[in-house]
User: Fold this.
Amino acid sequence: DYAFAYKEIFPTIVLQQGSKVVRITFYQLGDYSLSLDELAEAFAASLKGQSQ
Assistant:
């Protein structure tokens, strides 16, 4: 339903589906990191199958 992402120190995504809200903070270390768009899409897709 709603997604918001920001990066202060670590990338953070806030996802809302109905009355459920999840805040996810990513601690990415090393040379490779995913973009906020890639992270948001992956977690939004995983939440679709978790509805109760």
About this structure: The chain has a mean pLDDT of 77. The chain has one helix and three strands.
